[in-house]
Amino acid sequence: MKTREAVVAGSFYPGTKKEIDNLLDRIYSNEKQQIRTELASRNLIGAVVPHAGYIYSAYEAVHVFEILKKSPVQYDTFFIINPNHTGYGKEIEVDDNERWGTPLGYVETDTDFKRHLDLPVSDMAQLREH
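^ thats the sequence. predicted structure below, dont judge the formating
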């Protein structure tokens, strides 16, 4: 199975599951009273989640993921749209890996869905992305 391993684990975010869990627990504890979980009952079709280093972005991202967790809808596919920070590959392309490795484990990509997109497929743009 073609796998995209984590390139910057330990840089923009902690490098181990335990460190990530501890950081996210602290952030969640800080934010939980402000999370608008009532939004989980709405017809959610998308969300914007920041992707900077966890010490910055997780304070916002935890809101989105907690709302999704409480939603009665079970989502099959998530789109990750990111800028091409490195200039490798085409301006727009779909990653061709079958799964992504993270300190939390592996996540399979939706290869069936990707086959139906009319976009170039390559791993070049993702080689050094976070």
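The mean pLDDT is 90.
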